[in-house]
């Protein structure tokens, strides 16, 4: 479950703006110009940092900067996270004496049955290919003696102080049962319990830090092929990784013409792909397109995918949410089982994906036919 955040945060985006235009920036808005003189252009690109709400900011600027989004739409670099154990005396068993250490282990070193580290930090670091990182600090236990502890239960008491100390987000960690996972999308607070796995912890913190929504709100969703659909600790899909800033657009080939062969570099391997290979293929552009990528059990995280090979999924809408802080893609998995060499998938629009072979850790797929682009699909918002 996600709760929409009501408070503004810093946001940044590369924007185009006429140099001569009168600017209605406040002192609290900082502006960093990028290369305007060097490019000799009357227009320039720069990043704006504002502490104001994006909608309020745009209004004051005469509705310029439609594309302005929060900086935290991506998770790049180290995020400072607070983990606050919350104990409910009337509802929980006695808190373990080493609870703080248990949480620290979950963050930094959490060996599974095979002795492989599946800690939160290793998950984020591995699935982001080293681009995202975190530093977790476990704060003293807090008692909140009510059955339902809202995700922002400690906001009034802690949030401003934590922000002042440089924290990017905070999580309430509890002792209850499964299903506690919750977060403010593009906000500050997450909530989960000790029995929930690294997939839930990572999903909730991703909601908070990036505003990226749940993918399970549609049927036939990506399931175990994207942690933002399953919360089961697998790699996010190539589409999600692009949105989070973990995979460059250059790693994804765009298929526009007729028959073409591609060598796919398995998503779970270190990126970017070597020369001559692509991590994924996007078929078509615009609001509705197909994505093709190879998935194999190459590490402890993607060891949890249900089948190996090439998957095809359809992005019905890359972002159905008008809120600039939130990204809510509508994605359907079109190959419930990954395609093995020799298998063929044909989409409703006539695109054929044929897996022609496999090497040790690569898949080759063949795409046929061009894909008609359809636009204007705006499915209704579903709370989740
Ligand atoms: Zn979620």
Taking the alpha carbons of the first and last residues, their distance comes to: 5 Å
Query: Order of helices and strands, N to C?
Result: EEEHEHEHHEEHEEEHHHEEEEEEEEE
Name the average pLDDT: 82
Q: Please, how many domains?
A: 3
Shape: globular
The fraction of residues in strands falls at 25-35%
User: How many strand units?
Assistant: 19
- By helix and strand content, what is the structural category? alpha/beta
- List ligands, each type once: zinc ion
Helix share bin:
10-25%
SS field, number of helical segments: 8
Query: What kind of assembly state do the chains in view correspond to?
Result: single chain
Task: Lay out the secondary structure.
Layout: E1 2-4, E2 14-18, E3 30-34, H1 36-39, E4 43-49, H2 54-60, E5 77-87, H3 99-108, H4 120-127, E6 132-138, E7 142-143, H5 155-164, E8 169-174, E9 182-185, E10 189-193, H6 198-210, H7 227-230, H8 238-244, E11 252-255, E12 260-265, E13 280-283, E14 289-295, E15 309-317, E16 330-333, E17 344-346, E18 352-358, E19 362-368
Parallel strand pairs: 1-9, 5-6, 5-7, 5-8, 8-10, 11-13
Antiparallel strand pairs: 2-4, 3-4, 9-10, 12-19, 13-14, 14-15, 15-16, 17-18, 18-19
């Amino acid at each position: 479950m996600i709760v929409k955040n009501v408070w503004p945060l810093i946001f940044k985006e590369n924007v185009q703006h006429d140099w001569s235009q009168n600017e209605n920036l406040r002192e609290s808005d900082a502006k960093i110009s990028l290369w305007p003189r060097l490019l000799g252009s009357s227009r320039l690109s720069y990043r704006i940092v504002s502490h104001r709400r994006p909608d309020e900011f745009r209004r004051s600027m005469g509705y310029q900067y439609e594309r302005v989004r929060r900086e935290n739409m991506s998770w790049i670099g180290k995020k400072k996270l607070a983990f606050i154990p919350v104990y409910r005396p009337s509802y929980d068993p006695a808190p373990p004496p080493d609870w703080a250490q248990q949480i620290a282990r979950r963050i930094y070193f959490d060996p599974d049955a095979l002795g492989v580290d599946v800690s939160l930090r290793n998950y984020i670091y591995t699935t982001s290919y080293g681009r995202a990182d975190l530093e977790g600090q476990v704060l003293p236990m807090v008692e909140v003696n009510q059955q339902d502890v809202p995700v922002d239960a400690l906001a009034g008491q802690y949030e401003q102080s934590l922000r002042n100390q440089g924290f990017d987000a905070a999580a309430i960690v509890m002792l209850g049962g499964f299903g506690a996972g919750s977060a403010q999308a593009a906000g500050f607070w997450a909530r989960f319990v000790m029995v929930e796995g690294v997939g839930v912890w990572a999903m909730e913190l991703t909601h908070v830090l990036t505003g990226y929504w749940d993918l399970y709100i549609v049927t036939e969703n990506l399931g175990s092929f994207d942690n933002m659909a399953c919360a089961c600790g697998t790699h996010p899909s190539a589409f999600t990784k692009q949105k989070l800033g973990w995979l460059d657009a250059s790693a994804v080939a765009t298929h526009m013409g007729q028959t073409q062969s591609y060598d796919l570099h398995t998503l779970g391997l270190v990126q970017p792909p070597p020369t001559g290979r692509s991590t994924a293929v996007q078929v078509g552009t615009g609001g509705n397109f197909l994505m093709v990528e190879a998935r194999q059990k190459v590490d402890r995280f993607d060891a949890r995918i249900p089948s190996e090979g090439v998957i095809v999924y359809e992005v019905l809408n890359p972002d159905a949410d008008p809120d600039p802080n939130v990204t809510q893609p509508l994605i359907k998995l079109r190959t419930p089982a990954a395609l093995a060499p020799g298998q063929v998938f044909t989409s409703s629009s006539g695109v054929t994906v044929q897996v022609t072979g496999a090497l040790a850790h690569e898949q080759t797929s063949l795409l046929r036919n061009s894909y008609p682009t359809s636009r204007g699909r705006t499915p209704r918002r579903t709370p989740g």
